[in-house]
Amino acid sequence: MSTYAPAMERTQDAVVTRKVKRRHDWAKWGLGVYFVIFLIFLYAPMILMAILSFQGYQGGVTFPFSGPAGLDWWRSIFESQIHFGQQVVYTNASDIRSSGEGSLWLSLAAGGVVAFFAFTLSMAFRRRFRGDGLAFYIVILAMMAPGFLLGLGTQLLWKYMGRETGLWQTALGANSVWGIPFGFLVMLAIWNRYDDHIDEAARDLGAGAVRTFAEVTLPLIWTGIFGALLFGFTLTWNDFDRTALLVVGDPTLPLRIVGLIQESALRPDLYALGTATTAVSLALVAVLLIVVLIRSRFRRAPVQRMEEELGLGGGIDADAAEQVATPADTDS
């Protein structure tokens, strides 16, 4: 009967357990705190302004909040007079309405001009050309120019020509010049991600230049054009510096707000008006994000038909494509 010596425990078989100390990423926490402070600094004034706009008649322009809460100061934006019990308060609703309509049409026109020129200028930069670097900085120069100096220079130019400044004569041009560089950069970002082989494939399948642009290129870049339009609209809607010296007569909405502050004492109705204009800008940004989200979902949708995957759908004759491919197969 054989006996075996007991196995000796080896040091390398022993499991060594060490308590791992959890390291804190202080840089990450510091950046997070800085980001929260930045958000508070950016949005706290707008939030406080919105809260104070729901005060009652005795409400002031600072805290504490004076109730009862209501929509009376919001109604003063749209109604010429509002009633607080037995007291009637006359408002600036008619002036605000006329200025708001003027700002709306001016912003829409500036958005269209910015979208058009941003798109056409960016099309020129799809290919390298001599002096493209200088041309790029000339386009971006309007973004770096101070707004007040741009308005002053435009006013002096028109006065030298003996022409009167106005909402459509000068304010539209000054705001469009300011918005074009922003839309231009948006379109450059779109073109940097664009694959030129898509256009070449469409032309190889028999599509002309106009049809390729209308049915292939434009559906892929329309979100950038829409973003440029929103840039022009938002910048013009909130502009004061470039328009202050160029509008005679009925001012834009930002000029009207500053005029009401200078003419009379502050009331919560100005808070309601400021909150409404901010809400318009935020709504436009939300619309852009929703459009981009819907567009990205469509682009990620799976292809259901083999013809679409091979590029033979959408009105292109599959038999004709096979006949074109047959001589190449026989030659090989």
Q: Explain this structure to me?
A:
By secondary structure, the chain is mainly α. The protein has a domain at 106-252: MetI-like (MetI-like fold, Orthogonal Bundle), CATH 1.10.3720.10. 65% of the residues lie in helices and 2% in strands. It has twelve helices and two strands, in the order ααββαααααααααα. Strand 1 (81-84) and strand 2 (87-90) form a beta hairpin. Helix 5 (147-160) crosses helix 6 (167-192). Residues 303-318 have low confidence and may be disordered.
Question: Globular, elongated, flat, extended or rod-shaped: what is the shape?
Answer: extended
Main-sheet strand order equals 1-2
Task: Quote the CATH topology of one domain.
Answer: MetI-like fold
First-last Cα distance: 81 Å
Number of helices: 12
The main pleated sheet reads as: 2 strands, antiparallel
| CATH arch. level architecture of one domain | Orthogonal Bundle
Average pLDDT figure: 77
| Structural class determined from secondary elements | mainly alpha
Secondary structure: number of strands: 2
Q: Based on the structure, what is the oligomeric state of the protein chains?
A: single chain
The CATH class label of one domain is Mainly Alpha
Weakly predicted, low-confidence segments: 303-318
- CATH superfamily descriptor of one domain: MetI-like
